[in-house]
UniProtKB/TrEMBL annotation:
PANTHER family: RIBULOSE-5-PHOSPHATE-3-EPIMERASE (PTHR11749)
Name by which UniProt lists this protein: Ribulose-phosphate 3-epimerase
Gene3D superfamilies membership: Aldolase class I
Family: Belongs to the ribulose-phosphate 3-epimerase family.
Gene: 109539799
Free-text cofactor note: Binds 1 divalent metal cation per subunit.
Binding of substrate, residues: S13, H72, G149, F150, G151, G152, G180, G200, T201
Regions that span the bilayer: none
Domain of life: Eukaryota
Residues annotated for a divalent metal cation binding in this entry: H38, D40, H72, D178
Organism: Dendroctonus ponderosae (Mountain pine beetle)
Length: 229
C-alpha cells in the first residue's frame, strides 16, 4: 500500500511583481507551473509596508477563477478581514499569531466557517511553542525565513530547526517557508521538511520562471521521496 505523504507545492509571492500587470504576471506564473499564488497583504502596522487588500484580490479572482489563492495576512487585526477575503474568493487565509496570541483558536474557527483553509504564520523571533497548541486547528504552518515586510531579503537558515521539529512531529502537516527562498536555499528547506515553497524575487525576477519552479519542485520532491523509502 502506498504511504500517505505531503505534496510539494510551489507558490510564488507576487510582492515583487509589476503590480500594474498583476493579472498577466499571475497568469504567467501559473502557466509556468506554479501550484498556487501567495498574495502578501500588508497593513503598514504589523509590518512597515503597505500592499493591497481584498478589493484587488477580488478583481484578480474574477480574472483567475480556478487557482488556489493564499493570502499571507501581515496585519495587526486579522479578524477584520476574514469575511472580506472569503468574499473575494481566497482559498487559504494565513495570519500571523503574534498580534492575536490570545484569540488564535476563535480566529481559526471563523476562517474555516467562512470557507477558507487556515494557515498560521510565525515571525522569525516567535518560537514553535507559541503555535504548538493550535497546530491541530490549522491546515498549514508558515515559518517565515525573513522578517516579514519586504521581498529580496536574506534567507535565515537558523529557522530550519523549527521546520525540522514540525516535520518530525507532524509528518502530514503542510509546512510553508517564505523569505529568501530560491535555488541556493531550497535544499536547506527541503531537507528540513518544508513542502510548500514561497519564492518571491527568485521566481519573479528569473528569465526562465518555468525552469526555476521546476528546479525548486525537483529538490523538494526528492527530499519527500527520500523520507518515504
Ligand atoms: O512575506 C514576504 C515578505 O514579507 C515574502 O512573501 C516575500 O515577499 C518573499 O520574497 P523573497 O524574499 O522570496 O524575495
Amino acid at each position: 500500500m502506498q504511504k500517505s505523504t505531503v505534496k510539494c507545492r510551489i507558490g510564488p509571492s507576487i510582492l515583487n511583481a509589476d503590480l500594474s500587470q498583476l493579472h498577466a504576471e499571475s497568469r504567467r506564473l501559473l502557466d509556468n507551473g506554479a501550484d498556487y499564488l501567495h498574495l502578501d497583504v500588508m497593513d503598514g502596522h504589523f509590518v512597515p509596508n503597505l500592499t493591497f487588500g481584498h478589493p484587488l484580490v477580488k478583481c484578480l479572482r474574477k480574472n483567475i477563477p480556478n487557482a488556489f489563492f493564499e493570502t499571507h495576512m501581515m496585519v495587526q487585526d486579522p479578524q477584520k478581514w476574514i469575511e472580506p477575503m472569503a468574499d473575494a474568493g481566497v482559498s487559504q487565509y494565513t495570519f500571523h499569531i503574534e498580534p492575536v496570541i490570545k484569540e488564535v483558536l476563535p480566529i481559526c474557527r471563523k476562517v474555516r466557517e467562512a470557507g477558507m483553509k487556515v494557515g498560521l504564520a510565525l515571525k522569525p523571533g516567535t518560537g514553535i511553542e507559541a503555535v504548538r497548541q493550535y497546530i491541530d486547528h490549522a491546515d498549514m504552518i508558515l515559518i517565515m525565513t525573513v522578517e516579514p515586510g519586504f521581498g529580496g531579503q536574506t534567507f535565515m537558515a537558523d529557522m530550519m530547526p523549527k521546520v525540522q521539529w514540525l516535520r518530525h512531529n507532524y509528518p502530514l502537516l503542510d509546512i510553508e517557508v517564505d523569505g529568501g527562498v530560491g535555488l541556493n536555499t531550497i535544499t536547506a528547506c527541503a531537507e528540513a521538511g518544508a513542502n510548500m515553497i514561497v519564492g518571491g524575487t527568485a521566481i519573479i525576477g528569473a528569465c526562465d520562471q518555468r525552469s526555476v519552479i521546476a528546479s525548486l519542485r525537483e529538490t523538494v520532491e526528492s527530499s519527500i521521496h527520500k523520507c518515504n523509502v
